[in-house]
Specification:
The structure holds 2 protein chains of 2 kinds. Chain A is an all-beta fold. Chain A has strands at about 5, 10-15, 20-25, 30-35, 45-50, 55, 65-70, 75-80, 90-95, 105, 110-115. The N and C termini of chain A lie far apart (about 35 Å). In chain B, a hairpin with a 4-residue loop joins strand 9 (about 85-95) and strand 10 (about 100). Classes of the chains: A mainly beta, B mainly beta.
């Protein structure tokens, strides 16, 4: 079974530019999460989707961050305009919803550097 | 936001030593998970603990969930260089099973 795929793996941009990250979850996983992991910290949830609907986006900085999962499969996270403090690893995770299962499967992440 | 405090933040030990990592919160979680993350990779689930007082063993790793479901510990016996990595505890919250992560414990095991 293929894991969670993310691209690109690395991205360097200047502040005020825009950037987009892509995630393809494990096939059949209805729930998809985007996390931000700043160096030296644990991941922080940005947004959670159930199929193509948003379940929780309370910690998403909506003035500059946006995310979509139009067909309930892959997802895109966008930052516009980027700030220096957005430098982090952006992790995508997915979870199967059948039964009571807590395990989230994480992708390798996209490392963003804003200069 | 329910905060999870992990200690120690960094740990450097020699192969064969034992160690314990702690995860504490003022909040009660329905369950708690431990993940291990290697450089350039996403976290990988090690264990989920659900019941207060629960103890789970995974080879040389022993996980315990506090009776009040506010704290947890991870004990590694006879650490090996392959145990090197970032250990993260995460509290499961809400019906969507989103995770609140601690800052992690960075473990280095030298031969």
């Amino acid at each position: 079974e293929a894991g969670v795929a993310q691209s690109p793996r690395y991205k360097i941009i200047e502040k005020r530019q825009s950037v987009a990250f892509w995630c393809n979850p494990i096939s059949g996983h209805a729930t998809l999460y985007w996390y931000q992991q700043i160096l030296g910290q644990g991941p922080k949830l940005l947004i959670q989707f159930q199929n193509n609907g948003v379940v929780d986006d309370s910690q998403l900085p909506k003035d500059r961050f946006s995310a979509e999962r139009l067909k309930g499969v892959d997802s895109t996270l966008k930052i516009q305009p980027a700030k220096l403090e957005d430098s982090a690893v952006y992790l995508c995770a997915s979870r199967k919803d059948r039964g009571i299962t807590y395990e989230q499967y994480f992708g390798p992440g996209t490392r963003l550097t804003v200069t | 936001t329910q905060l999870l405090e992990q200690s120690p933040q960094f740990l450097s030990i020699q192969e064969g030593e034992n160690l314990t990592v702690y995860c504490n919160s003022s909040s009660v979680f329905s369950s708690l998970q431990w993940y291990r993350q290697e450089p350039g990779e996403g976290p990988v689930l090690l264990v989920t603990v659900v019941t207060g007082g629960e103890v789970k063993k995974l080879k040389r790793l022993t996980f315990q969930f506090g009776d009040a479901r506010k704290d947890s510990s991870l004990h590694i016996t006879a650490a090996q260089p392959g145990d090197t990595g970032l250990y993260l505890c995460a509290g499961v919250r809400g019906s969507g099973y989103a995770l609140n992560f601690g800052k992690g414990t960075s473990l280095l095991v030298t031969p």
